[in-house]
């Protein structure tokens, strides 16, 4: 009787788990088919007029033609990426039967599938949840077809796999974080929340060795590996950033600045733009200081603390950045999904805010980007709402992270009650 009682719940759990995985697979296939359809029909003006796909078949393909000859695009103001981006942009050569654009999209879908699989495996373990995988599967299509025409999905795959492998292998966690940081710098932040001691020493050491070794190899194979630093330093204030929102509102108060295409984005030019850019950099420094202070004062780690810290760090650096492109939301979706795989996470409300901000990002780009560029009142309101959600998410994320790692309050010892009077011996004056 006891055996039947214990085996039935396991069978039910197994059946429920399989159904959920099948539903997750069906949802992934359906949503990605829709994203592919949108990408194939992106000539419609209301869906971006083809500009989304042009990033791959024009810009990336042009860089590919330079990279195959053993050099990074020197003196190109649009090349603002670390050397690790080179192999990613060369990877479509692995599928010679397809055009560059087709191969790039196939590899992006493969990275997307790898993220989904990693989240599903992690979420299917005891004490975990598939909510993270569901968020990724359902959240990425909120950006329509944009993720398929950017290589941020590949970068996010490095960060997600780094975090999910960290509990089982600090070496693998460090290696994947370093590889991601070589492609786009932000994945280095995912190791911020590793527990003190051996875990941190191992993960950080392997990340440093992998990063240095890979960078040396890339520098030996390609010319001009560090030219991106000069182009990155010259960037201004993008119209979709928090600083850009302030400048867009300033145009309605008589500010004489203009929007211009430069450094691969629509940026503001005019008086006080450099000041706003410097303020953004100062806020990034403040964010880094706050994260460092959190790291020094944190006393309690849960299984979800590394995940929560990664999301908080990337949120803070995104919000204070001079550039908040729509594809940045891919990073936040991936990290929020990792948090939701753990029942110990404190970032569930933050994940909800990230989803809302992602939906608004799509309304801004590509649907109503002309309004944002023109700094109309609807465009300003749209960006104010999106960036307000991101700012709120960043602040809330740090607060919840900070509180979750404070020392547990010590329970006060209960006061000792005096013994019953009846049990005391009576005092006698006589013999």
From TrEMBL:
State its location(s).
Cell membrane
Main site of residence? membrane
Highest taxon in the source lineage: Bacteria
Where are its TM segments located?
21-40, 100-122, 129-148, 172-192, 204-223, 276-294, 353-370, 376-399
> Which molecular-function annotation in GO is an example for this chain?
hexosyltransferase activity
Membrane topology per the record?
Answer: Multi-pass membrane protein
Keywords in UniProt for this one?
Answer: Cell membrane, Membrane, Transferase, Transmembrane, Transmembrane helix
Entry keyword annotation includes Transmembrane helix = yes
Compositionally biased residues, Low complexity = 411-422
Q: Which GO terms describe its cellular component?
A: plasma membrane
- The protein's name is DUF2029 domain-containing protein
Q: Which organism is it from?
A: Streptomyces guryensis
């Amino acid at each position: 009787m006891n055996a039947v009682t214990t085996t039935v719940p396991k069978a039910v759990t197994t059946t429920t788990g399989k159904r959920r995985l099948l539903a997750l697979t069906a949802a992934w296939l359906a949503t990605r088919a829709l994203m592919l359809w949108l990408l194939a029909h992106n000539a419609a003006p209301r869906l971006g007029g083809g500009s989304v796909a042009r990033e791959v078949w024009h810009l990336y393909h042009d860089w590919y033609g330079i990279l195959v000859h053993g050099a990074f695009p020197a003196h190109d103001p649009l090349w603002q990426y670390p050397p690790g981006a080179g192999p990613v942009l060369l990877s479509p050569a692995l599928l010679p039967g397809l055009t560059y654009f087709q191969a790039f999209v196939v590899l992006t879908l493969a990275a997307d599938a790898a993220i989904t699989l990693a989240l599903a495996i992690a979420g299917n373990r005891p004490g975990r949840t598939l909510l993270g995988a569901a968020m990724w599967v359902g959240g990425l299509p909120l950006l329509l077809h944009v993720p398929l025409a950017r290589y941020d999905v590949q970068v996010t795959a490095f960060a997600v796999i780094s975090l999910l492998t960290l509990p089982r292998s600090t070496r693998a966690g460090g290696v994947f974080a370093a590889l991601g940081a070589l492609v786009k710098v932000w994945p280095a932040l995912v190791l911020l929340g590793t527990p003190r001691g051996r875990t941190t020493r191992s993960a950080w050491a392997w990340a440093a060795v992998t990063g240095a070794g890979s960078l040396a190899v890339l520098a030996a194979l390609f010319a001009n590996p560090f030219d991106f630093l000069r182009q990155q330093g010259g960037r201004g204030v993008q119209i979709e950033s928090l600083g850009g929102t302030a400048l867009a509102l300033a145009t309605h108060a008589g500010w004489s600045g203009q929007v211009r295409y430069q450094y691969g984005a629509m940026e503001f030019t005019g008086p006080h733009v450099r000041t706003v850019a410097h303020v953004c950099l100062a806020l990034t420094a403040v964010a880094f200081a706050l994260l460092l202070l959190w790291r020094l004062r944190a006393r309690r780690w849960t299984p979800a603390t590394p995940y929560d810290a990664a999301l908080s760090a990337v949120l803070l650096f995104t919000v204070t950045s001079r550039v908040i492109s729509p594809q940045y939301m891919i990073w936040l979706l991936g990290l929020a999904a990792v948090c939701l795989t753990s029942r110990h996470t404190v970032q569930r409300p933050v994940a909800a805010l990230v989803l809302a901000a992602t939906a608004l990002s799509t309304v801004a780009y590509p649907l109503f980007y002309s309004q944002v560029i023109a700094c109309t009142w609807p465009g300003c309101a749209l960006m104010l709402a999106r960036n307000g959600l991101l700012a709120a998410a960043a602040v809330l994320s740090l607060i919840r992270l900070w509180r979750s790692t404070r020392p547990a309050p010590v329970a006060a010892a209960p006061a000792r009650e005096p013994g019953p009077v009846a049990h005391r011996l009576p005092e006698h004056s006589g013999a």
